[in-house]
Amino acid sequence: MKKAIALAAALLASSAQATSGLDFGDLNYFLKGGQFNLTSNVSVVNVEVFDEAASAEYETNGYVFEDRLSYGLADNLNAFVGLDFAFKYETELPGSSESDNGGLSNPYFGANYRLMNQKDAAFNLDFGAIARINIMDGETGFAGEDGNYARGNHALELNSSIGRKWNEANEWRLTAAVIQQFAGESTQMISGGDQDYETDASTDMSLTAAYQYRPVQEFMLTVSAQALRVGEIESENTTSNFDTTEDAHMDLRFGFSAKYLITENFIGRFNYGQGRLAEYDIERNNAKSELKDRHEQFYGFGIDWLF
Length: 307
Prior knowledge:
This protein is mainly beta and 307 residues long. The protein is built from one helix and 19 strands.
């Protein structure tokens, strides 16, 4: 009888340890102190939108590279830096012309703090902050001019995540974020004379839910859904002296990822995503229009390297 009780206790302890343990590749995995993590993705992106007033469809295609390096300052605190780059990121315009937004984005840095861990509590609870630094103004190139991938303003995101891995194969994670877009500047680079814009501050909010299934240690499948509320954007063309107002709207994005643990510290990943983006009104120089039939799609590959 004593042996049976001891065996049952051992099995329960083993089960609890398996449930509370988080492995590299899990949604809720948190860097340990002294660990580095390099995350890199390359995506093929397609975005479409129809401008009702201009009776024209605009289609954007390009390649986007996203890189982030993180470091564990402690078991419950990590910091990271990141930089994005767009290659051949061009928009087809009416009249067989194109605009260019290829190039570097503004860099960002941030930190994550784990307040609660599922080993000691019912779930994992994290708080994070991301600051994007406006090193260069946003530029859009026309008629052969080169642009960049920068938005042209400082931005600060505050977020909080809650999640749990409830057995060896299943886990969930929910993240809420508020993003403050500070006032900024951008330029449309046109051969006949550049057009300068000043954009007022605005606030965005997002909610992201993710679920991951890990049937074996090496293979992971993740699905996610995000609702992003984009705040009203007001800008002024300081060259030609007219205003533009874009109404607030809600965009929905859905993602899928298949990951494979190639070695104990290296993951290869396939990513796919679609956006069902809301229609919204825009007013330029007192002329109103509606941007509709907005669609977004991407697919690509990525890696996670823990060292």
